[in-house]
Amino acid sequence: MNISFFRAFVDVAKYKSITRAAELANISQPALSQQIKAMETHLDCTLFERTHKGVVLTEEGEVILKYATRLISCHDKMIKEVENLKHDKNHRINIMATPIVYAYALPCTIHSIKENFESYDLEMKAASSIEIENQIVEGKADIGFIIGTPLDESLYCRPLIKDPYYLVASTELDVPDALTVEALYQYQVLMLKKSQKCRQLLSQQLEKCHVDESRLRIPYELDTTESIKTSTVRGFGLAFLPYMSIKKEVYNKQLKIIKLEGFEFMSEYHLIRKNITDDSMEEHLEIMRYIEDQVDATKC
């Protein structure tokens, strides 16, 4: 039975009039009478009795009224929650970023975005560049910040942040301010795992300045830039780290920058997303463009 049948039934019970209930339901009296008859057939009972005061509920009708009222209330709450959920989804932006951008570029940007787009919920997650691109392609994320460019050329891609990598050491270590490539082999060097894109790009740059990675004293490989930085501050080895992640430690004289012969590496971070052509997504496009414009200007 359609929910409208129950609404009409409740109105008939309330006003004790099929005519009045039909007017409220904007249908004819015969049509409403047919609905009531269909309910009685389905429920195998008589719902109303005719009296000189109008129609009144039978004993069975009283029971049906109790549950019909609850059913209508639950139905209306269900519709409202679904509509609210649709609204929430339409005002939610899922942002994914590499750990460096997530930790050092996004926090201040997000604060600025929330001030200008209060109705939006912003969900953020750190992940590898490859995972971010996959999530964008699958529609599970709206905006991604990756190092380098995406493999999928159909994605919208905009360069946003350039951040130099430096060789650094703890200020507690006795390391010269400049090293030759040959001298570098004397020190332990902490590195990310080879599966990570940052490590792969770094390896390419090291090869260009004639650093033989097989000769580097790499005691172990770590999962995150933060873990490498922490280990470096504690004097466990030297490390190649992006400036965004170390500028505070350099300022506080916990780390010092070591000039390595021939080494220059500028990491480039790009914003990626799907191209939006649907007019209904225009509001999303506005906030996405705002994020693009703000992320570099407001990075912490």
TrEMBL record:
<dbReference type="InterPro" id="IPR000847">
    <property type="entry name" value="LysR_HTH_N"/>
</dbReference>
<dbReference type="Pfam" id="PF03466">
    <property type="entry name" value="LysR_substrate"/>
</dbReference>
<feature type="domain" description="HTH lysR-type">
    <location>
        <begin position="1"/>
        <end position="58"/>
    </location>
</feature>
<dbReference type="InterPro" id="IPR005119">
    <property type="entry name" value="LysR_subst-bd"/>
</dbReference>
<dbReference type="GO" id="GO:0003700">
    <property type="term" value="F:DNA-binding transcription factor activity"/>
</dbReference>
<protein>
    <submittedName>
        <fullName>LysR family transcriptional regulator</fullName>
    </submittedName>
</protein>
<dbReference type="Pfam" id="PF00126">
    <property type="entry name" value="HTH_1"/>
</dbReference>
<dbReference type="InterPro" id="IPR036390">
    <property type="entry name" value="WH_DNA-bd_sf"/>
</dbReference>
<dbReference type="GO" id="GO:0000976">
    <property type="term" value="F:transcription cis-regulatory region binding"/>
</dbReference>
<keyword id="KW-0804">Transcription</keyword>
<keyword id="KW-0238">DNA-binding</keyword>
<keyword id="KW-0805">Transcription regulation</keyword>
<dbReference type="InterPro" id="IPR036388">
    <property type="entry name" value="WH-like_DNA-bd_sf"/>
</dbReference>
<comment type="similarity">
    <text>Belongs to the LysR transcriptional regulatory family.</text>
</comment>
